[in-house]
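Task: fold both queries, return tokens.
Query 1:
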Amino acid sequence: MSTAVKTLAELQVPFAMRGGGHMPIGTSNNINSTGVLISSSNMKQLQIGPDHKTVTVGSGNVWLDVYKYLEPYGQTVVGGRLGPIGVPGFLLGGGMSFFSNQYGFGSANVAKYTCVLGSGEIVEATANNMYADLFWALRGGGNSFALVASFDLKTYSAPVVSVGSVVYGPGVRDKWLDAVYTFAHDGSKDAKAALIPTATWGQSTQGMLVYNNFQFYDGNHTNPPAFENFSAPVLPALQNTVSARTMYQWTLEDYDRIKAVHGMRNAFYTVSLYAKKEAMEIVHDTWFETAKLRLSNVTNFLGSMALMPITERFISAGGRDPMGIDASQAPYIWVEESLMWSNPADDKTIDTFLADVNKDINAKLDAKGLRAPYLYLNDAYQGQQVFERYPKVNLAIMKGIRAKYDPQRVLTDLMPGGWKVEHASIL
């Protein structure tokens, strides 16, 4: 990796860096024929520390690899909720995990980054060494500072977790939104509980708006009190795969489902809300009503919206980072809009829909003071102002760190993919 970066910089050849390739923005982990693609897919190092308190993870791994390796040790890490997600992009963007209510962002649980700078120099950044400023910037600051060859991650005991998918079907909007709201304020006080509540509409749902959750509990407890509003008699399930197993076993179930949609076109968009019932209703109703009007003829369209509760403990558990989210205003709801379709001819329709519907949503939220400032980098769409929504002082510091470690702007100009701190305006 070091030789490649040094050579490309000397020759002024554009390049892209791909870890797991999960982000569905073409330029984020790919480049056209004018440049070179560097893939970390063979950097599969996995080595648990002698005290089992950390594990070194090469940047070519996906989270399924990591959970499989740690399973015999009864350990886990604060990693991705889905198996095929790559390690480096997840961690450099912050990283939401099933374990985040206990331990914070995935990035808050990195003990060391082994990095390649834009000059090709290899450095190790920790919270307490001479590269502590670089360490801070990498905790949610993206790819402007260095390429990361490996991460030393903190490990935690988790021999058994209870996790699975719960499907409710159509016609439960009110009860489902009530349950998500209640979990955000009350149920998530049990830090071992985590939830991805999702509403879905499209051709594969026969035009019905259906609801489901991914439910997680750290331990052998398949129906803890935290989820009482997501089960009978309040909200009876049509299907429930929640069971006690390992994280690796869960990612195998999840991987089969994700593999079925490989090859589809995909887009994300993110919105942040204060956890108010009215805000959730605005986002849910505006998005799906507009989608039904404008996307019914998009080939093989499937659209989903995850309303993810984010707690004060989630935000504060990891300490200082560039994202600078105000924990005192929690809980939040972070919305991930996820769209899939098959025909490239529909790309412009999707792009226009996302711009228009979110302009409408944000205007409605702003009118009532319900929109929160932070945008989660890993769920953002091209053109969203991610770093402009970080605290101004943090963005200024990030710009200084970028200039210190990459004065020639190799990772900004020659590697254009992703969000760049240098391109962000301090508003």
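Query 1 returned. Query 2:
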Amino acid sequence: RNVMGHCLSRKGGGFLFFGADLVPRSGITWTPMSPRVSRKHYSPGPANLYFGGELLGKKFQVILDSGSSYTYFSSRWYGVVLQMIKKDLTGKPLMEAPQDHTLPICWKGAKPFKSVDDVRRYFKTVTLGFGKRAQLDIPPEGYLIVSEHGNVCLGILNGAEAGLGDLNIIGDISVQDVLVVYDNEKDQIGWAPANCDRLPKSGTASL
């Protein structure tokens, strides 16, 4: 079958597969592919954008791009999400760290952070809702990194500054430890939480 997919580990590495042998029979969230956004990329179509369960916008055009390390939102939605994050951080023990140039927006704490787990309680989940039921949840660890300076940085970037126009790209950072399946025969995209550290036994290439 004309099926491919990937599973990227948060610890690094992961695997790529071809064929349907590794696609679970249950537990996968499926949504139709949309051909309207880009012929070069896979798109699950327009989404509703939520932050912490609050609806921020509709008809949010999304493409999935495993070639992008980070996630990019168009200038409008990047600004909206950043504003919500900053609002939530008011009164929290995090301060902006403009001296850290790892990514455009970073925050520092009283002491260096070792992992996103140290700060995830201060951030909310970003959710993309497709159709009536399909949802892709992007938890804090799906859009934050810890820099070599021990600060936490926002892995959602302004796509306009990268020349992407109005495209919203879900990159590797947001699908780590998620099995993503592209079924080109049924024209659908699926995803499910997964342990991407475990290499499957057949039909795959490790990363």
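Both queries returned. Flag for query 2: The chain is about 5% helix and 40% strand.
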